[in-house]
Amino acid sequence: MFLARRLGLPEETPQPVALAVLFYVGHLFCAGWVASSEIFAVSTIAMVGYLLYRRMFTASFHILYIPLALYGLDSTISAFVAGRHIHSFGEGALWGKILLFPAALILFRNIPRSRDAAIRMLLVFGVFSSAFGFVQYFALTSHHDLEHRITGPTAHVMTLSGLLLPIALVFLVLWIYDMRNILLVIGVVTTHFALLLTFTRSVWLGWIVGVAVLLALKWPKALAWVAPVAILVISFAPLPFFSRVISSFDVRQSSNLDRIRMAQAGVEIIKDYPLFGVGPANVKEFYPLYRKHDAPRFRIPHLHNNFIQLWAERGVLALVAYVFLQFLFLRQCARAWGGPATKFAEIGVAVTVGLASAGLFEFNFGDTEVFWMLLDVFAIVIAFIERPQPSNEALPEPVLETGP
Fold first, then answer.
1. From CA 30, how far away is CA 278, in angstroms rounded?
2. pLDDT tens per residue across span 95-133
3. Could you give the percent of the chain with pLDDT greater than 90?
4. Which H or E run contains 347?
């Protein structure tokens, strides 16, 4: 079959199976266009469900289903017990977003070659998005300030940077294991340069922490060079980048003070609504009641911190689910460390730590595109590091030998 062959699957692969893989890689390529990504994701979930119904796929369990289910359940309860129910339907849709993870993992487990197609498309999206950003920065605008930052194929610079961070780390780890691969070199250069051009300090921090953790685990002695190299790089960086880094330490700077005031208001909201929060999408309405008088903004979309936002918005169980999800996944990576799939364990650690660190200054867990990217990386990494399971990939008919 043409479709199966183009996807790197055996030619005997049934058409519905090939379509499931096609829908999933389509979701990955369209990660920057949320509507298109959602259409492909829903199609993937529906097709995997159909294949399970037809018993062409085998259902399977993973421990990460538990924190994801807890997050969905708590979010739904929070939406209904809140005084304002403006986001009840949205929390129903959250279950569809969560289902992407088991659908992807079941797909990878039943069709192991699909994981190769998925990671290739993930990398292709990273290079494409970076190139898109280059065109915006160098050709489509003469304004290179914080009000005119690149967005790539996404709607907002924070979404682009949140998507590029994990892909840049994936490229970096793969390149470490195959430094002569020119395609990986191109990917590392383009994604990292694009990440710089977003001028997003939170993802810069996430990248630094992710790489630092890798160094600490792989080459502890290399940490002695981190501070001198960082000082050298910052000192000789172009003025826009230098100024952006230095501004991180100025608490009087508007965006920095804004985040401090958001955190303070979030703590006060948590004190009043510790169990189920104020309800999804309600923080922006409650914030004016809790903000300090000198907070730069009267209304905000969220509290720019995963931990504070989840607790204030959805309650303590949502925060527990978020932390539990990260912990269980990192435990899976730790168990695979030093084994045949070490590089994927390293990818998992770097991406998890990087996004969590960036999430200290941005609610990236609540960004649909970034949330799905996290689940995609989790599913791909788990598919590579766990023990092989029986596959449903179509195999060629055995050749029967006949005697003379």
1. 33
2. 989 999 999 999 999 999 999 999 999 999 999 999 999
3. 72
4. helix 342-358
| C-alpha span between 53 and 50 (Å, rounded) | 5
Q: Identity (one letter) of the amino acid at 350?
A: A
Helix, strand, coil tally for the chain in percent (to 5): 70, 0, 30
SS3 of 270, please? helix
Residue with tokens 């925060």: 319
Handedness of CA 251, 254, 257, 259 (dihedral sign): negative
Of the pLDDT bands very low, low, confident and very high (cuts 50, 70, 90), residue 244 is: confident
223 versus 391: which is more confidently predicted? 223
Domain positions in the chain: 2-57+82-249+315-385
Tokens for 297?
């903004």
Residues whose CB is less than 8 angstroms from the CB of residue 149 and which lie 6 or more positions away in sequence, other chains included: 157, 197, 198, 199, 200
| CA 21 to centroid of chain Cα atoms | 20
Q: What's the N-to-C CA distance of the chain in angstroms?
A: 35
Q: Which residue has the tokens 């941005």?
A: 362
- Cα separation, 1 vs 231, in Å, equals 55
pLDDT single digits (tens) 208-227: 999 999 999 988 888 778 77
User: What is the per-residue pLDDT across 22-74, written as a single tens digit (0 to 9) for each?
Assistant: 999 999 999 999 999 999 999 999 999 999 999 999 999 999 999 999 999 99
Taking the C-alpha atoms of residue 71 and residue 94, their distance in angstroms, rounded to an integer, is 9
Instruction: Confirm if 185 and 175 have CB atoms less than 8 A apart.
Output: yes
Q: How far is CA 377 from CA 99, 115, 222, 300, 329, in A?
A: 14, 10, 27, 30, 11
Q: How far is CA 56 from CA 11, 47, 164, 199, in A?
A: 16, 11, 35, 47
Retrieve residue 281's tokens: 């999408």
Neighbours of 383 (CB within 10 A): 24
